[in-house]
Structure formats: C-alpha cells, structure tokens
Amino acid sequence: MLRVPFLLSLLVLFPSTGARAFTIDDVFQVFAGGILDVERTLAGAPRWDANPNAQGLSGGVSVSVSPGFAAAFGRSAADTQLLDDGLFDSFSALELAVPEFDFDIRLGGGAAEIEFFAVRGTDSVFQNNGFTGFATFHTDFRANRGLTDGTTLAGNAITHGTIHINIDQFNVIADSLLVAGILLAEDMGLHLQQLVMHELGHLVGLEHPNEFPEANLDNDGDPTTVIPANLGPPWPGMAVSTPVGTAIMNSGLILRTNRAFWTADDLSGLNVLYPVPEPALAGLLVTAGVLAVRRRRGAPAQPLG
Questions:
Q1: Which regions in the chain score pLDDT beneath 50?
Q2: E runs forming strands in 33-132
Q3: Residue 227 contacts by C-beta under 8 Å, 6 or more apart in sequence?
C-alpha cells in the first residue's frame, strides 16, 4: 500500500532518505522480548510456493487486469498508451529481478491469482485512508512449501492477491507534478510503473522498510549492498539493519525521474524470499540501478539505462 495522503505526498516528491534494508509483511514479523526473531520471521515469511506440484509459481502466475484499465484514468491517448506500457513494465521488472516469476497477463478482468483494478477514489478500498494504491494477499500454511532454490521450508504460501489503484488520487498527483515540471509528459508510464512495482512488492511478501525500523534486516552490516540470492536458512549473519537508501518499497515514494528500479533494499528482500541455487547465482548478478525494464507485450525485456 502506498500510504501517503496527497498533501503529504507533495512534500515527498522525491524519496526520503529514511529507508532501511528490507522487511517482510508486518503481520508475519515474530518478536521475542521486544527483539525480532530473525529465523522464525524469515522462515514463516509469506512467499509464492515454488513447489512444482503445488499452486504457485509453477506454470506461471495468472494476472487479470480490469477492463479498460489504462483508459479508466481518463487521460489523453498518448498518456493512456504510456500508462498501459507502465503497467506491463512493472511486471517485467519483477520477472527480471526474480526469474522464477512468469506472469500470464490477461486484459478484461476475471478470476486470476493476481487481480488488478483501477477504481475511483470513492471506492470502498480507499475510503478515509488517502492511499494511491492498495494491495492485499491471502496465504495458506504449507508444510512442504517450495523455495525457488529447490529446497522446501514450512511456512506461509501466497495463493492470491489483489491490487487496487486509486485513479483520482493518481491523476491529482500526476497533474500537480506535471505543472511543477517534476514529471515530464513522456514519463507518465514511469509514474504508474513505480506505484505498481511498489504494490507488487507487497504481493510477493515485502513491507514498508521505513515504517518498521525494528524489523529491517541485513546480513553484512552494510545495508547499501545487496544480500546474495543464495543465502538460505538459517540465514547466517542476518540482523536488524541501520538506515540507508531509497527503496521502492518505502511508503512515501512518489516519483523517481527518468527510470524505475529496484534498490539494494528491495533486491535484498527479493533475494532472501526467492533464493537461487549457487550455480545459478553468477547469471543473476545485475546491479540494482538497471533492474528496471521497458517491455511491450510480445517483445523481450530490455534494461533501462
């Protein structure tokens, strides 16, 4: 959820420096004596199940997008195309960061593992909260939940999620940024992409790092570095971290100009929740600054410069 009322959002047009290393969904954080129990928290942390015999990542994740999603924003034809592109780019960015995700995106709505909606600010989801986006997910506890490195670990498996975008709030902020000269017209798709990447981060198990300083994790004492993608249970060296960075998962992120990308904070969380076997690691060492993509339907993903 992007929990930033509009008036406050104008004060944070650029990301704050209060982000920290990654944290998982706060509902699943486990404390003992006021101290985060790192191993229990990470073990139970919600993830999509990679077990080939279970519903989850196997065979891809189905996504339905409400009918006329981009057109629902009521903007120009050029903006509508950019918003459409930004939506697809968001999913591509997650696929590039975690290749085990393979999204099957359908336009027109309907039942799917992830259901995506553009709604008015009067929708019940956005009553009295000032949010621009809102994500929720459902989990099942599975004793043989599969991790993406081929191992199993009992814990919560994400089975279904929804994302709602408040088109009224989005438009008010976008128009204000355009008037201020902060958002360029050609970057309208990036404005949406960053919001959707944030909400997708929630649907894969991440939380706002700047809101939970007592539960932010790092493994080497330097939260500016990315935690390796082959660091699995019992997560040696993992401990509560110190402040750093400007994560996509920050609450308060409104706009990064020119490109959208996962930061070291974001990538660390994705790597811990979705590890890879060691032989595969070398092929996935991509710097955080280029982990944004611009992909049109039917075209290969390309890094943004």
A1: 1-19, 281-305
A2: 35-36, 47-48, 61-65, 103-107, 114-119
A3: 21, 22, 218, 219, 220, 267, 268, 271, 272
- Does residue 300 have a cis peptide bond before it, meaning omega lies within 30 degrees of 0? no
Crossing angle of helices 188-203 and 167-180, rounded to 10°: 140
What pLDDT score does 247 carry? 85
- Residue range(s) defining the domain that contains residue 86: 6-290
Is residue 79 domain-resident?
A: yes
* CA distance from start to end of the chain: 27
50 in a domain, yes or no? Answer: yes
Task: Judge contact between 2 and 198, C-beta under 8 A.
Answer: yes
Neighbour count for residue 297 (Cβ, 10 Å): 10
Is residue 153 domain-resident?
A: yes
Question: 295 lies in a domain?
Answer: no
**pLDDT tens readout for residues 78-103:** 999 999 999 999 999 999 999 999 99
* Residue 263 belongs to domain with CATH number: 3.40.390.10
Q: Report the C-alpha gap between 260 and 247 in whole angstroms.
A: 11
